[in-house]
Design a protein that fits this description.
Length: 265
């Protein structure tokens, strides 16, 4: 168990840095690593993806607070955007968690692999928005929040992989997009975690120390490290060339997606 906890601490350290650096919540790293580790632990296959998604979502509650607090101190959180998108985010994420709880592990893995490849392409393409493009109104932000929330729950992320490109597309600065995305990750994580706990509460056969679909040993290890390393990621985001880092991260996503696809085949 000690070795397993140390592995989770390592995942959390990486996730925290990525949360602060790119505003992504760390789920794209945490989910596949949880899948590999839970498989190694001998957890029944039909529960592995649900546990990975739920635990990733729960960890983002803590990572996002550490990350957006550090971004807020640098004036990089657009709070008007957060307020307008929050209701749609919460509703979409809860519904997405309910949907994911009823899908098979194989199906959820397939969705996650497709999402990894899509995000790798988006990061490498780095398309620039039209100069005249701005954020939509309240109804538009509610709809966008719904979409981001549903997808976030299905793939266990804090929404940054969708919200950062969306805000860049609407001509927010890179630092504002990353900082605001980190803040948006908090309501996503709260709603998603509640959804996974409620839907997994009566499920038989889950490993010991599970709270619904949230696996507590993994959550503790990940949170212990990620909360400490998220501010480091923020400092890096404000000092390193983010565009180059996005391309490196895109390669990482493609490699992880290929590894998971191979496991499915």
């Amino acid at each position: 168990m000690v070795l397993i906890l140390l592995m989770y601490v390592g995942f959390g350290a990486v996730a925290g840095i990525l949360a602060g650096l790119l505003g992504i919540g760390g789920g794209l790293v945490i989910v596949p690593m949880l899948v590999f580790t839970l498989t190694w632990q001998g957890v029944p296959n039909e529960y592995i993806m649900h546990l990975a998604l739920a635990t990733s979502m729960a960890s983002i509650i803590f990572t996002s607070v550490s990350s957006f607090s550090a971004h807020h101190r640098r004036g990089a959180v657009h709070w008007l955007v957060v307020r307008r998108i929050a209701l749609g985010i919460v509703l979409g994420t809860f519904l997405g968690a309910c949907l994911a709880s009823r899908l098979s592990t194989a199906y959820l893995k397939g969705v996650f692999v497709v999402f990894l490849y899509y995000m790798a392409y988006q990061l490498i393409a780095d398309r620039k928005p039209k100069p005249s493009r701005t954020l939509p109104g309240r109804l538009g932000m509610f709809a966008v929040g719904n979409g981001i929330g549903v997808v976030s729950a299905l793939v266990g992320i804090g929404g940054g992989t969708l919200s950062v490109p969306f805000m860049l597309w609407c001509n927010l600065t890179v630092h504002e997009a990353i900082g605001t995305s980190a803040a948006i990750g908090f309501p996503i994580a709260i709603a998603g975690t509640i959804g996974y706990i409620v839907n997994g509460w009566q499920v038989a056969g889950l490993p010991d120390y599970s709270w619904g679909y949230v696996y507590l040993p993994a959550l503790v290890g990940i949170v212990a490290a990620s909360v400490l390393t998220a501010p480091l990621g923020v400092r890096l985001a404000h000092s390193l060339p983010v565009d180059k880092l996005k391309r490196v991260f895109a390669i990482l996503l493609a490699l992880v997606g290929t590894r998971m696809l191979w496991g499915l085949i």
